[in-house]
Design brief:
The protein has 15 helices and no strands. By secondary structure, the protein is mainly alpha-helical. The protein folds into two domains: about 80 residues, Receptor-associated Protein; about 250 residues, Type II secretion system (T2SS), domain F (Receptor-associated Protein, Up-down Bundle), CATH 1.20.81. Helix 3 packs antiparallel against helix 4, helix 11 runs antiparallel to helix 12 and helix 14 runs antiparallel to helix 15. The N terminus and C terminus are likely disordered.
Length: about 375
């Protein structure tokens, strides 16, 4: 009977179902609530396994329950799923489990993940708006050049050499796109594939991460660096508040940063702090954090309130990121209008110039 149930679950399992970070955040919050009301860990896991709608996540939770029932610690059970529960998650759970405050650790992890998801959502939508507008504008312009423009210029058939240079250029571009659009689409797809492959290579990841850390584009400014600083400060603060010591916390921050350059520099800094140097002294040469942030870390380290200082840094830089996103949208909107207006003007001139030339010729006669 059990085997039949298993087979049925396999058949009902969605082919492309994935476990998102939001699912993990919901799991953390619900497990924290169950533990907070006094439910034992094993029973809480069994309960969540029954209530979870996603088949794959249900299997993960049930496996966690089996491992805990067999005597494994919850943290060690989570460590078997590094894609779902990274080092940051496992280390905080481990400290909470040992200290008898697992529900608090899970609640902090849920809040941390939810804040990060909200921030990523804001960043995504801020960047998506100009991208969609530009893509739609390009599509409309291409359709005009390929489909509409040749029809409008049909009255000048056989007189192409007498057309203005701008008109001939626009017509040539439309003809080229109309004739070679399959090759152009394949080329764009190949370039996108090469870029995605390049991102996964060690060298490509280093190049892109270095670019994100030192964003110097106009308008965007240092948005990439501010975003990374805000994330580092929040992650670092969460680890320290959860009871993890400074050096292990720095190593976890390094792996959780998502940036190769930051990971290497934080790991190096952790090794130097372990040798007896102060956090401020080792972070200054790294150049990852702005000097004012390094100074604040030094003050927090000396006063024994490093987690509080990190909270202030996170709040400050998160506000700066949000303001930068708002300002970026305000600036991008008029730029997009100028771009679209300029494209429409060029097409209009290319179309009307031949008619104006005819009018001038008739007037002259």
């Amino acid at each position: 009977m059990a085997e039949a149930g298993t087979e049925k679950s396999k058949l009902n399992q969605p082919l492309f179902e994935r476990i998102s970070r939001r699912d993990v955040a919901v799991f953390s919050r619900q497990l924290s609530l169950l533990l907070d009301v006094g439910m034992p860990l094993l029973k809480a896991l069994r309960t969540l396994g029954k209530r979870t709608s996603k088949v794959r996540f249900k299997k993960v939770i049930n496996d966690l329950a089996v491992q805990v029932e067999q005597g494994s610690t919850f943290a060690n059970s989570l460590a078997k799923y590094p894609r779902l529960f990274p080092d940051l998650y496992v280390n905080i759970v481990k400290v909470g489990e040992v200290g008898g405050s697992l529900e608090l650790a899970l609640r902090r992890l849920a809040e941390f993940t939810e804040r990060e998801l909200r921030h990523r959502s804001k960043l995504f939508y801020a960047m998506m708006y100009p991208f969609v507008v530009v893509m739609v504008a390009i599509l409309v312009i291409v359709l005009i050049l390929v489909k509409v423009f040749p029809v409008l210029l049909g009255v000048f058939e056989g007189q192409e050499e007498d057309l203005p240079q701008l008109t001939r250029s626009m017509a040539a571009v439309g003809d080229f796109i109309g004739a070679w659009w399959p090759a152009l689409l394949i080329g764009i797809a190949v370039l996108a594939g090469v870029f995605l492959w390049f991102r996964k290579t060690p060298f490509g990841r280093r190049v892109i991460d270095s670019f994100n850390l030192k964003f110097r584009l106009p308008i965007v400014g240092r948005l990439g660096q501010k975003t990374i600083v805000a994330r580092l400060a929040e992650t670092f603060s969460l680890l320290l508040k959860s009871g993890i010591q400074l050096i292990p916390a720095m190593r976890v921050v390094a792996t959780a940063s998502g940036n190769v350059i930051v990971e290497e520099n934080f790991t190096k800094a952790a090794n130097e702090v372990e040798q007896g140097r102060s956090l401020q002294d080792v972070m200054i040469p790294q150049g990852i954090l702005p000097p004012i942030v390094v100074d604040m870390l030094g003050v927090g380290e000396e006063a024994g309130s490093l987690d509080t200082v990190l909270d202030r840094i996170h709040e400050s830089y998160s506000e700066e990121v949000e303001m930068a996103l708002e300002n970026m949208n305000r600036i991008i909107e008029p730029i997009l209008l100028v771009f679209l207006g300029g494209a429409v003007l060029l097409i209009a001139l290319a179309f009307f110039l031949p008619y104006w030339n005819i009018d001038e010729a008739l007037t002259f006669e």
